[in-house]
Amino acid sequence: MAAEPPRERPRRGGFGRELAGALAVGLSVLAIVVVVFQVLAWIRGVPGPGATMVGGHLGAAVLAVLVQRVADKNEGVLAGLAALAVVAITGVTMWLLWWS
């Protein structure tokens, strides 16, 4: 009988990385919603969210997903900083495009 290769320990993300992933997904869904509303506004001939709102959401979503990939592929301090960056991107996006 052949010896079984040692099993790799599953990587755990931790709460911070999981929260950052959820925020990145949330930004992506929000960007899609804003784009859909802009397209509907064009079809109906009414003002929509506008180019700033659409571009800001798309840019933030792409940036958050890319930074989240860094968090998922690394461990330690780099992963923590990347997860924190996703939280910051989400906060800045919400502040600039929704609350201010």
Question: Layout of SSEs?
Answer:
Layout: H1 14-44, H2 51-73, H3 77-99
Brief sketch in words of this structure:
This protein is mostly helical. It is 77% helix and 0% strand.
Structural class: mainly alpha
- Overall, the morphology is elongated
Mean pLDDT: 92
Structurally, the number of domains stands at: 1
How many β-strands, per DSSP?
0
**What integer value in Å does the Rg equal?**
18 Å
Q: What is the CA-CA span between the terminal residues? A: 67 Å
Which regions are unreliable across 5 or more consecutive residues at pLDDT < 50?
none
Describe this protein with a few key phrases.
100 residues, 3 helices, mainly alpha, single chain
Give a description of the structure.
The chain is an all-alpha fold. The protein has one domain. Helix 2 packs antiparallel against helix 3. It is elongated. The model has no long low-confidence stretch (mean pLDDT 92).
